[in-house]
Amino acid sequence: MGIAINQPLYSPQELRDRIVRFEETILQGEQVELPVEQWFCNGTYVRQITIPAGVMITGKIHKHPCLSVVLTGRMEVITDEGPRVIQAPLVYESPAGVKRAGRCLEDCRWLTIHPWDGEPQSEAFMADALTVDTFEQLEQFQQEQIQCQ
User: Fold this and answer.
1) What is the structure's pLDDT at 32?
2) Which CATH class is domain 35-148?
């Protein structure tokens, strides 16, 4: 009889570090342009990304919580909480401060839904307004938010 230990193999910080190193590695390879669509309506911003099967991907870090909706497909995803398989249809609250890495198993269409009271803006503007690239940038943003209170 085997012994089962219900402990993660890596700590959340170790998983974060591995995701960052994974991103550094895949950025050295060939990049795939992923189609993005966006919509603005009544104080809401919706962003849709389409990810083909076989693509390895990392995401930016959201500054605020948002809703995530996986419309189609299936993807292996890892965060600082560990690995899991995400499969459509799925709706969940995505907390702020999470970085994901994944491998798309079946073509995916993935939405994120954010509050937005401003005018419609470009995709690049919205990415800068809602996300950061690094945990250091997230920490700086959070410190600025504390100072504004």
Assistant:
1) 92
2) mainly beta
